[in-house]
Amino acid sequence: MQIRLAIPEIQTDSIVDGKGIRAVIWTQGCRHHCNGCHNPMTHSFTDGYLVDVEDIKKDIARMQGQDGITLSGGDPLEQVDACLEIAKYCQSIKLNVWCYTGYTYEELLDKAKKEPNIIELLENVDVLVDGRFVLEEKSFDVPFRGSKNQRLIDPKRSLKLGKVVLANFDELDSLLNSSSKMKVFV
Ligand code: SF4
After folding, report:
1. Is 9 helix (H, G, I), strand (E, B) or coil?
2. What are phi and psi of 13, to 5 degrees?
3. What distance in angstroms lies between residue 30's CA and the mean position of ligand 1's atoms?
4. By residue range, what is the domain housing residue 26?
5. Torsion of CA 4, 82, 19, 94, to 10 degrees
6. By three-state DSSP, how is residue 169 classified?
7. Which SS3 state, helix, strand or coil, does residue 74 take?
8. What CATH code is carried by the domain that includes residue 30?
9. Residue 13, exposed/middle/buried by CB under 10 A (0-12, 13-18, 19+)?
10. E-only strand ranges, the chain
11. Residue 157: is its pLDDT beyond 90?
């Protein structure tokens, strides 16, 4: 079955959307409408264009020098099936995955009661940046986030332990190293 992802663009090099040099897959569509959002053009569910996930995988396979892939938006959690396929592919080639969402981790667990593939997506994400952007909590002192309420979560460990576990930056460095080595074979 063909799975397609609605996107405004794919950016091949970013150093602000997660650790290292990352390719960012910007997804189209967001319901949160946070006051002060930097990407209002990604809110609409009818703009952007549809790309076959298989073509995105081919693009990822051709990339050289990126330390990982970031799913951002928009809200990637509005297109779980497509993002899951991309995340699973990245993990299969040992490429680490960051995912930004306006939902909190707890809201995602609740949503997963009706959409169980959300759990599978979280199992294939190395860092989840969760929560809406809150203008009153905007800060330049929280790396890779826009506001202090947002968290860098290790979703795999959080699911395993049944509680929120924050991402460990030392481990993120080792993920970068392993993915960089893997790029030799991609
Ligand atoms: S969740 Fe992100 S993309 Fe959506 S409105 Fe909030 S800041 Fe903007």
Report:
1. strand
2. -135, 115
3. 6
4. 4-185
5. -110
6. helix
7. coil
8. 3.20.20.70
9. exposed
10. 4-7, 9-14, 22-26, 49-52, 68-72, 96-100, 127-130, 151-153
11. yes
Mean pLDDT of 146-166: 98
Which is the closest atom of ligand 1 to the Cα of 133? 7
Residue entry with tokens 């990339």: 63
Q: State in Å: Cα 175 to ligand 1 middle.
A: 27
Tell me the pLDDT tens digit for each residue of 103-122. Answer: 999 999 999 999 999 999 99
CB atoms within 10 A of CB 96: 24
**125 Ramachandran zone, left/alpha/beta (phi>0; psi -120 to 50):** beta
Nearest CA to ligand 1 atom 2: 102
Domain count, the chain: 1
Which residue lies with its CA nearest to atom 6 of ligand 1?
Answer: 34
pLDDT at 184 over 70: no
Cα(35) to centroid(ligand 1), Å? 9
pLDDT class for 169, splitting at 50, 70, 90?
confident
% of the chain with per-residue pLDDT over 70 = 93
Looking at ligand 1, which atom is closest to the CA of residue 101?
1
Q: Ligand 1 centre and the CA of 73: distance in Å?
A: 7
